[in-house]
Amino acid sequence: MAKQDAFFLIADISGYTKFMAQAEIEHAKGILEGLFGSILPLIRAPMSISGMQGDAVFAYAIDCDAVSGQFLVDLAERIYCAFAAERDKMEINTSCTCNACANIAALELKIVLHHGACVFQEANGRQELAGRDVIAAFRLLKNEVKANTGLTAYALVTCDAVSKMPVDEIFHDANRYVEEIEHIGPVEYILIDMDDARNRRDADERIFVGHDDELMFEEWQQEIPASPDTIFTMCSRKDLRGAWLGATGIDVLKSNDGRFGTGTELHCHHGKSGFKLEIVDWRPGEYLSCRYKVGFGLTFLETMEMQEVDGGTLFRLRNEQVRTSNLLKRPLAAMINRKLATAYAQTKTERLDCLTDMAIEMERNAAAPKVGLADAVVSATG
Question: pLDDT tens digits, residue range 291-313?
């Protein structure tokens, strides 16, 4: 296969060698299976798993629209949070005093994100990645981050990856570091403190429009042959969201240095009309909740939910009714509910079909050879 440009993601368990050397193998195996089991389900299209090497999972994504923007930064944070939550749960729930169970807390996760060229080569019936930049990504696991910064839980994002996503605006004031790699040369990178990322995500309030809430209209449902991560990207990236929802433009009123998430404010244009919305709950690959402002101090909540099912995603859209405690505004709220419900009903089929077609096309462009998940688990734990 010809050379291709790709993003590389390596999630590496720190302390693995010491842990395995000092631990009872039966308990250690179960602990590692649990930790990897928390990570692997998150690595899905547009990402692919290339393989696992004992203490690390190696994934990649061929250059495509699906992984542009902050997708990989969000994914790295989700992977770490899932790992840390599983590790902490194991530590709390065990009463075993063996060396393996007693040292669960010593295990940590570091992540490397890099971008470069690679080729696919056949090895034992699998497609594996090879090339100078693949080597560089793995060499970056052996670095001076802990010595220079004290960080043990981090994502190391090379400047090649930052500029290619591109997310330069997000990291415009981040410190730059350099690792000198033998035969390759200097590699510049920035760091994301994963403990900070976890604390931030844990502090976010869950705001979710559920089935039992008072809905503006019957929820939209559509099974789409694409992953929840792809559907979330379709719902959260302003250019893609605007395309399938029929907006003529979306302006960013507020963001965190260009990064979308809880607190981001947008103004959506639909011809001569428009409305403002704020993202109130940002859960990549799970759901996205927004608060719409419809004037006169009235608002309503919307949740777009992505549930993984066989063959793809069950997408659901639910809008809570416009409500107000002001008796004088209740007739106005009722009128707005009727008007919006009618507008949504008129465009439902067109919008859902457009979302489906765009998601399928996005994943088609991201398609690449991949190793089976079952093979990866066996490689890691067997």
Answer: 999 989 999 999 999 999 999 99
